[in-house]
Structures are given as C-alpha cells and as structure tokens.
Amino acid sequence: MSPTPVRKLALLIATACLSVNVVQAASLAPDIAQKQAQASYREYLDLLSIPNDSIVPEDIRRNVTWLEEAFRKRGFATQSLDNDGKPMLFAEYPGKQAGRKTVLFYMHLDGQPVIPAQWAQKSPWTPVLKQKAANGNWEEIDSAKLFAGAVDPEWRVFGRSSSDDKGPIMMMLAAIDALKAAGGAPAVNVKVILDSEEEKGSPSIAKVMQAHRDLLACDAIVIHDGPMHATNRPTLVFGNRGAAKAKLVVFGPKSPLHSGHYGNYAPNPAQRLATLLASMKDDTGRVTIPGYYSKVRLGDAERKIMAAVPDDEVALKRRLGIAQTDKVGANYQEAMQYPSLNVRGMGAAAIGDKVANIVPDKAEAELDLRTTPDSDAAYLGKLVEQHIVKQGYHLVQGTPTDEDRARYDKLASFTYQSEGGNAAGSPIDSPVAKWAYQAITGTFGTNPEPVRIRMMGGTVPTAEIVEVLKVPFVIVPLVNADNNQHAANENLRLGNYTNGIRTLHGLLTQPF
Amino acid sequence: MSPTPVRKLALLIATACLSVNVVQAASLAPDIAQKQAQASYREYLDLLSIPNDSIVPEDIRRNVTWLEEAFRKRGFATQSLDNDGKPMLFAEYPGKQAGRKTVLFYMHLDGQPVIPAQWAQKSPWTPVLKQKAANGNWEEIDSAKLFAGAVDPEWRVFGRSSSDDKGPIMMMLAAIDALKAAGGAPAVNVKVILDSEEEKGSPSIAKVMQAHRDLLACDAIVIHDGPMHATNRPTLVFGNRGAAKAKLVVFGPKSPLHSGHYGNYAPNPAQRLATLLASMKDDTGRVTIPGYYSKVRLGDAERKIMAAVPDDEVALKRRLGIAQTDKVGANYQEAMQYPSLNVRGMGAAAIGDKVANIVPDKAEAELDLRTTPDSDAAYLGKLVEQHIVKQGYHLVQGTPTDEDRARYDKLASFTYQSEGGNAAGSPIDSPVAKWAYQAITGTFGTNPEPVRIRMMGGTVPTAEIVEVLKVPFVIVPLVNADNNQHAANENLRLGNYTNGIRTLHGLLTQPF
Predict the structure, then answer these.
(1) What pTM did the predictor assign?
(2) Range of the domain at A39
(3) Minimum Cα–Cα distance from A336: chain B residue
C-alpha cells in the first residue's frame, strides 16, 4: 500500500475526527455498573468452574451448554456450530433492523492448559477471591464478599480463564442485563461468536466461519481478547503481527573433527552460521536484508498515534535489564510496526560440561519472524532465503549428500514454516474504529484519551478470525495487563470487570 | 624469532645437509628385525595384559614392576621415580661414555581409559591377533601364529596401548636385544624415561623431571609417541601446537522475553554473539584480529619442508566431506603452523523440540585456541579479549548486576583458561634432528624421503616433557596412523612393529 496523498489526507482527517465525539453512547453510571456486576458474579464463578482446555471436547461441550443457556435466557437466539466435537457458540440478539449496522463480537470460551501444582489455590477450576496483603502477597478472602456490601475494585478473582477470556463473555452478558434493566435496546444489530480453540491458535475458526458465512454476516468485528495497556486506560488495538518460523542449519565437515588436527583447516559451521546471521542485521539490531522493512509505510498520522501511547520506556528497559534497545523504531510502538527477525535458539555441538575439542559438524539457528499485514510470511521468508543464497550458500533439503559436499563450499538448509498465524491490521480510521472510539470516550471521557495501539507485537489469531468476512475490525481488550494470562494464578481485577460492563454497554448503545 | 639473514642461511645449509648422509647407522636387516620381533611378541602380549589407566595407581605400579624387570634383564640400571603412587620408570643403558652425546628416549606406560563393551574382543586387556577378512572386517586368528612360521606384516595386535604407547616400549627392548645379539653397543649414551600420566596430559612429568634433573641430564630428547604420517613412511616431527580454552557469554535481557512483544526491541544476545564471532574471522576462515598470526614467520626453507609432506589433500577433503578448506595456509601443513580460533560449541536457549518464541537471555560460545611456540596462550587470549572490548563490550565476571545492565549496552563475560598444554617446537636443523634423519635414512634409504612435519596440529605434552631440560627434541612416531588411538579397538600393525625395531636400532647405532 503506497502512502498516496489521498490516503495521507484521509488519515489526517480521521485523526482530526477522532478528537470530536459526534454522537455519544448512553454512558452507564459506575454505581449501576457495579450493581450489575455484583448481580452477575454468581454466574461468573459458575462459568469459571467448568474446565475448558479444548483438548477435552466433553469439557468444551459443557461450556457451550452452559453459555447457550446464559445467552438464551437474556433473549438471544443461539446456535451451536459444529467443530469436530468442540462446538463454537453463535448468539444473536433479537430485534435486528435492516437499516442498522451489524457488529459481530468475538470472544473465546476455551482456556490454556493448567498445571494445578503451580497455582496458589485449591484448583484453577475453583475460582477464589483475593486481596493484596500489606506484604504484597495475594491472600484469599471469603468470596461471599462479592455478593454483599461494598466491593473493592482492587480485589481480584483468581481462576483459569477469569481474564482470558470468560471475563469478557460475562461482562457482555452483564451489559445486556444493564441495558434490559433500563428498558433499553442496542443501537446496533448484535451477533456474538465464541471460539472453542483460540488457545490452540484458532485452527478451526476460519473453517467454521466459512461454513456459516450468512449467519455471521456483519459490517464489523469487535474482538474482546488480550490485556489492556499497562496503564489500564481504555485501549483500542487495530492489528497485530503474525508469526513465521524458520530453521537454518549450516553444515560443516561430515563428522565432528579433532580441533587440533583440523582447526584452521576444516571450515567451522558455527563460525559460518555466526557470519551468516551477522550479515542479516547491523549493530543496532536493524535487518539489513534489502526490502525487509520497505513495505511498512508510516506517516505522520500513524507516528502521532504511536507517540501518544503512554509507554514508560525507562521503566520498561529497567524491568527488561537492558541499557539500550534495538533501533528499529523510534519507540516501542514504532518498533512493533515492523517485521522482526529473531534468533530464538542457537546450537552447535555442546556447551558446558560436555564440551569437546572439536570442529562441529553443523550449527543450527531457530528463527522466528514476526510479520505485518504488508510484509507477510511468504514475502519475508523468500527475502531471507535469497539472502542466504546470495552469501554463497547452496541450500539442500535434509542433509547434504557426498556429492553436495564435494561440489559446494557452503552448504545449508533453510526450512521455513509460515504456520504461526498471519498478521492483521485494520485502519485506525475505519468506521468501526471511530464507532468504538466514540463509545469509549462517551463512557469514560477523553481525559485521558484512550490508548490506541496500531499494531501489537505479539501474535493473536485476528487474521484467522477476520479473513473470511473481510470487514474492518477493532480489538477492545478489557482485562488488566497483569492478569497472568496463560500462566498460573490467572486473575481478573474487579475494577476491570465493572469498567468492562461499562465499555460493552457503551458499544451496544453507540449508534454506528 | 625474526628470520634474520643468518638464520635463513643456516636453514638453507641444514636443508642441503639433510640430503647427504654423512655418517650411517648400522642398518638392521628386515629378516633379522622380523626374527627379533617374533622373539619379543610373548613379552609384548604380557605387557598389554596389564591394565594401565593411571586412575588406578596399583595398575601403574604393576606395569612399572614388569617393565623394570624387562629393562634390568637387558642390562639397564633402573630407578622407579616416585609420583604420588603412580611412579615413572627411569632406565639407563650401561657403558656411558663421557665423550658421547646422551639421548633421553621418552615413552609412556599408561593408557587411555577403556569402555570394554565398545571393543570387538573379550577385553581390551586381553590382546588378540587379527587379520583383515575379504569383507574388510578384522577377524581374530590364533595368536600362536605370532610365534611360528611366517608373520604377515598386515596382521595386527588389538589391545589397549598396543600402539599408544607400549608398542614403542617393546620395540625399544627388542632393538636392544638385536644389538646385543649381534655383539654391538649403542653409539650414544642411552637413557629412557617412561611417563605414567601421559594420557592425563602429563600433569606430573615436569615436577618429576625437575626432581631428577641430574639423573635425566641429556643432550637431546627423542619422543616415541603418536602415529606416523598416514602414508606410513618414516616420520620426524619437530613440534606441536598447544591449546587454550575460552568461554564467551553475551548477555541479553535479564530473563527470556516473548519474541512477539520484544522482538525488534530488546537486543538479541544470540544475534550479538554471532556478530561478535563474525568480527573475529573473515569469510575464508582467517582470523582478522590484528597480531593473531603475525608472530608466525615462515621462510622458504620451512615452506619447502611443508610442501614435501605427502598429504593427499584431495582424499582428505573427500574424507572430511568439505569442498574447500579455510585459507589460513597454502596447504594442510602450513595451516598447522598458525594459531587457531575455533568455536567448539555454541548455544542460546533451545533448539529442536524445546524451542520457544523468545528473545534468549544469553548466548554462549565455547572456544579453543591452538597456540604456537611464538604465539602462546597468554598472548592470544589477550588479543581476543581486547578485540571484544574494542567491539564495545563491557566485560563482567559471572553475571551482570542490575547496575551493569542499566549502564552498559553490550555486556559479556570472557573466561580464559590457558591450561590445555603449551606448544613446543624444535628447529628442523637441530643436531638431534639431523642425527635422527641420518639414522632413519641409513636404515630405510632416501627414496622416498622421510616425512618431516614441522608442527603437528594437535596438542601432545611435548612442552611439558622438554621444558625442564631445555634441550632440542625430535618426535619419532613408530605406529600406524589408523591404530584407533584413544578409542576402542586400538591396534598395532606388525609391519610397524618390525620397522619400529629397525628405526630404534638405527637411532641407537647412529653416531651423534
């Protein structure tokens, strides 16, 4: 995509528009949201009590049955979507109007596998309420406190999927309750899809959506998954990088050789791998392979959006233990706009106790490439492969034959897998982005502004979710960043639960 | 050592002299040597039956007792040299003459540890006789064949230390027997020292020699250890490289980081290690650190000697499975004259099944440096360390502190151990070198010429052996190159045994 003057202008206009709230959502008052939250905690704890690792289809079905009932009793029409025994759930709110925009809300009902012994509670499937003690530790308190009296927003519910991603599902149900209690109705046509294999990388979502294209037809997709910005300010995310994997093996002599008799004589594959990797990046961490970054075009509007993200990079560097960062972008957000080329593992012969005086027979590097919507896995992989060949390497499949060895000085294999998930990006000035911005600022105001993240560095299956319907999307994360997602002691901050209900109420009531 | 015109002239004269046999040794006829060999096989097999891993001092003492008796009955005066329970043996032939040169013959009685299960015979300590079958395998034959009838020079005795280094000890005893049977006497004063810890790197030889300086006083040292040139032609070796070890660790973030969120941002230590290693060598395998090779001075005489070594590099490259070699020297021998810098192991995070999408927290390289007499471990280690610092690294001991991490962009540790054994070199025109050349050509003629190797690539404890007495030395290997030294199925070719007796007879009878 070239930054044509027209597109630049559109971006500038969009950015200007984002500062003006044209139409406001009905803002749900904090005390009412709080009351609605309290009324929903019983269901929330019940839902968290049902194991949901999608490796156990029976558990997935129990979740679907429970959720189908929860959506139905709020008036939704539901449909279990077959998926090899691990069904997904579709739900549609009644009162669809032909002249209104239809928004598909995506969440997922499955959770990461658990290692119960690592959890500081009886079971990851038995949610508990905790408060932070004076010593900084989380201590359990009676969960009856959730249902009577004042609830401290800093308390947290601990349990698998409390944040990722059953929390947002319950917030949606509670937001609907709030809307109904006030006698209101959504301002958009509401469809919901609950994925059952998100934690496995959503291998089936595209297939299921393809099979139900008409049912899922919509004007925009809103994804409620992942954490809010570390400041816990309302957050909008417009894309995420994809991932690809590569393995690079440089071959040396046929067998490991005595380094006394052959050091200086038989070329060392670890040295050659080092030289090859070094040829791919400069000393500031920038990839030097021509074309690697060239598809990413960032204009002033994008840079302004990125610069506005309140990242505390001084604190971040201190936490990571680094004095300086790579110089790919001017700041953290900008760095995430570009594809990465990362050595995630490297090995040749042995290090430590088993080290031997040899010239190794091969050296290996495991790489991961983070992709962007404009620079996909196929494009980047080809660039790296061509670069390796340009350095004089003859590439083989598997291991070289004796004939290869006799013929080619430099031998390597390069195995490339683009299966790590595609990148996804939606314009920061798309109708759904503007609509979500209005809903959020209508609820929380503009001081401070919501955090807008153009591209997350990590990979989530956004592309798989949106690619069938090909409509704009926005990710609206609702849970606290320090929720221990995917790990032991996953939790949700109650203040985020209440604000999540308010956010969803805002989205439901915001005219599109 | 600078190649002054005087030295150059000396070398040219020496090279010229080596082609003219001034005084000839008494050549032992092949049939007499063969008869003498046959007469000694019983003792040889007996000696091989005594285990000799120096980790078991009692076994070492049994070997010393046996050998002391063997030398004594041939007229030697012997003395067991105390060495913490693992004595060495000194033996001196009678008839010392004040006007004659004294030669100290070094061999060793200990052997490498064994893994009996890897041996294709009952026990590594039960020597057996084998012949090569039509299918190329070695098959056992009745060892009685050693004592009656014609012995095939291609037959081999298999057993631990058959070649390394009890074979040469028995050849020496048999050469003395031959000399005595003919009513002759040595032309030099003969001293013998048998090391008991050579396979552990001779940690004690210098101390023992220091304690017995007067006893061991000599004009030259001849070392019988290691294999002959692969062609099995008579071989003279004038030095060997030493070894030093280093560990280089490049530090990244404090903990491994998610490569999606931090790839492109937190500097990758594997990438940095690669860049650092790449900065040390060029694409042809030559070290680019200034001064690394500059102390090695090779003149035309040395190059002529090296070029004369009948290495079959085409076959060697085929065997190693490489199309081209590093460009350190013009040929294999020349490459071995230079120090090496070899990556013997490398690692960062995991490769293979356990690979994860992370920016690793550190990357490590295990290096070995082969040293030369002019470029010792301290000199080379300092150059590498200075080079690392010059690339912008702050070096720490152990792991960096938080303060180090906040202050320095590039952090590494460099641990250097110069304990791998020193290099040793003796002039190719030294009196002992000329004397040995004359003895060998007097026995085997000059067509083909003996193989003269200026510097072996591997490290043997020559320096430790010669550094106390500070006299010229020459290494005269006697055993076949394909003897499986240090490994299972070690063996000695009977033709080498007979020729070894002839070689030793030549040395003993060659006027110095």
Answers:
(1) 0.88
(2) 20-240+423-509
(3) B264
